[in-house]
Amino acid sequence: MYLDCFDDVRELTKELVRIPSVVKTRGEADCAQRIHAFYRQLQYFRDHPEYLLFKQTEDDEVERYNVLAMVKGTKGDSKRTVILLGHLDTVGVDDFGTLAAHAFGPDTLPKLLRELPPGDEVRGDLHSGEYMFGRGVLDMKSGVAGHMCLMRYFSEHPEELDGNIIAISECDEENNAHGIISALKVLRRWKREHDLQYIAGINGDYSTPYHENDENRYIYFGTIGKLLPAFYAVGKETHVGQAFGGLDPNLLVAELTRRINLNPDLCDQAQGEVTVPPISLKQTDCKDHYTVQTAIAAYAYYNVFTHSMSPKDVMGKMKAIAVGAFDHVVQHTNSSYQRFCQMAGHVYTELPWKPRVYTWEEFYDELIKLHGETFTKHFKDFAADMHRNNPAMDLRDFNVRMVEEAWKWATDKSPAVIVYYASTMYPNLEMTGETEKEKRLMDCVRESVDTLKTYSSKPVVTKMFYPYISDSSFMAISGEQADYASLERNTPAWGVKYRHPYEDIAEINVPMVNIGTYGKDGHKITERVHMRHTFEHIPNITYQAIKRLLD
Predict the structure, then answer these.
(1) Cα 104–Cα 105–Cα 107 angle in degrees, nearest 5
(2) Three-class secondary structure of residue 519 per DSSP
(3) Of 8, 327, 431, 487, which is least surrounded by CB within 10 A?
(4) Total-model pTM
């Protein structure tokens, strides 16, 4: 059977895109309300209102909601359950500039884009009529719309399912994952209350060509992981007129960026696939106003993708890089000073700086040895007060404030670098087909892809890691719990502002596949989705996969 769903998914996508659900704005709740209203009017959920939830996120500084809907099959009495994921939030629209008011207008935006010099590829796609443009149209409201249409179909035909489907429309995928982390608790409760057996998860997040001539469409088993290692560099301040009298922390951080940014040696490889290398996401000193004194401290953090590396692995690599960078800066500074002394006719004396690098765990333990309970009590109270007084503080900012406060307790104030984790961890999920759940999901998806060949001439290629950050990371356990110890011990905000939901994930623990939207330029002004593949082919592949999984 092939579903005639193109028009329904297209119109529902437009409706969702018109709701500006930028992450951490009121729009997230508005979009969730619209999705909830869609399900609520279906006869199935009128008859079974307990299977539909409009649930506020937990431990969140923003008022926003997830929508969870469950359809129970009547073909048999199986407890097997497939979970559909799709995030309803988007990134912001500052990049649209004067067109920001039209960013969420799929009908009006294309005309305005034609008036710009968009480039040959974008111009061709604009005139082809094959693409829909707008913020969130690709990432990933068209995916949510496809899941909604599938849920409507199965709510009308539960007799096709020997098992159950749960669709989650979650918020906050683009920031700190409050949506999926809160949804896990509902999944745990429903598992207990309905005796569910979770067997697989299907995410609908976006995919895109790898290069201009790439005609493939992609489906991904598993997902990439992401960590955000950060470096707090303390130098020695000095007056600009005595430049060699101090050590510039900006130079330390700049050398870190030179060694980390786009470094292929830091790519992670598994199953013949390679992550893109790390890239800087922030680099700044800690001065808040202009003076002719050099900065006391600076910090930076970097996106690091993983396929198999654990937090411990990444922390070890980052510390080694920091040691090398620090040593290089000391040598470079001495070399520059020696040349200056020769030019100015001064006597050269080697500068006193020595490389000092700590992980957060090492630095924190040293402070405990120095100050004992006095420090630990102060630090715990400081963190709790900061969180209570400013619950909306960004997690990255919260972590660096914790490091700054800890540094005040250091007795040795000579230059140092502290390496820590600054944000939410997205674990990598690697599927090998070695477990029965994984093998069944992989077989069912590949069989489902084969059914599309009659309807599409474009090849659909399966790969082993979804290459972008996604909520799939929170659906299965990757590695052993001990692998997460380095994350806990090296995240200053752990237990106050952030804690990884290991126990909740362990209760769900399903293999994941991304059968998602297809288009181009996600997170760009020219974001667009290919309508035929996304509104028709993807829902049908997903439909076939669900049918096979719950046959």
Answers:
(1) 155
(2) strand
(3) 327
(4) 0.92
Q: How many CB atoms lie within 10 A of CB 487?
A: 23
Q: What's the rounded Cα separation, in Å, for the pair 550 and 163?
A: 6
Contact in structure between 106 and 14 (CB atoms under 8 Å): yes
Share of the chain above pLDDT 70, in %: 100
pLDDT tops 90 at residue 454: no
3-state secondary structure 147-189: HHHHHHHHHHCHHHCCCEEEEEEECCCCCCCHHHHHHHHHHHH
**Residue 526 in 3-state DSSP?**
coil
DSSP characters for 251-284? HHHHHHHHHHTT-GGG--EETTEEPPPPEEEEEE
Return the C-alpha torsion angle 75, 78, 82, 88, nearest 10: 70
Q: What is the mean pLDDT of residues 5-15?
A: 98
Residue 377: CB atoms within 10 Å: 11
pLDDT exceeds cutoff 80 at 298: yes
Give residue 453's pLDDT.
Answer: 85
Tell me the one-letter amino acid at 500: H
Confidence of residue 423 (pLDDT cuts 50, 70, 90): very high
Q: Give the number of other Cβ atoms within 10 Å of residue 108's Cβ.
A: 14
Using left for φ > 0, alpha for ψ between -120 and 50, and beta otherwise, residue 195 falls in: left
Q: Encoding tokens for residue 212?
A: 């201009």
Range 226-421 classified under CATH 1.10.760.10? no
Which 8-state DSSP code applies to residue 291? Answer: -
In tens, the pLDDT along 216-251 reads 999 999 999 999 999 999 999 999 999 999 999 999
Is 115 buried (19+), middle (13-18) or exposed (0-12) by CB count in 10 A?
exposed
pLDDT digits (tens, 9 = 90+) for 300-359: 999 999 999 999 999 999 999 999 999 999 999 999 999 999 999 999 999 999 999 999
Residue 320 CA, chain-centre distance (Å), reads 26
Fold designation for 6-224+427-475+510-549: Aminopeptidase (3.40.630)
Report yes or no: 84 and 154 within 8 Å, Cβ to Cβ: no
Mean pLDDT in residue range 117-122: 89
Q: Answer for the pair 269, 315: CB distance below 8 angstroms, yes or no.
A: no
Residue 210 per-residue DSSP state: S
pLDDT level of residue 283 (50, 70, 90 thresholds): very high
Structure tokens at 540: 């049908």
Our CA dihedral for 504, 391, 283, 472, rounded to 10 degrees, sits at 20
Q: How far apart are CA 167 and CA 190, in angstroms?
A: 13
Domain segments of the chain as ranges:
6-224+427-475+510-549, 226-421
What distance in Å separates the CA atoms of residue 67 and residue 37, rounded to the nearest whole number? 10
Distance CA 156, CA 151 (A): 9
Q: Which two tokens stand for residue 233?
A: 């560099």
Confidence grade of residue 483 (pLDDT, cut at 50, 70, 90) = confident
H or E element at residue 340: helix 311-344
The amino acid that residue 146 corresponds to is G
Q: Output the six-digit token pair for 259.
A: 């060694």
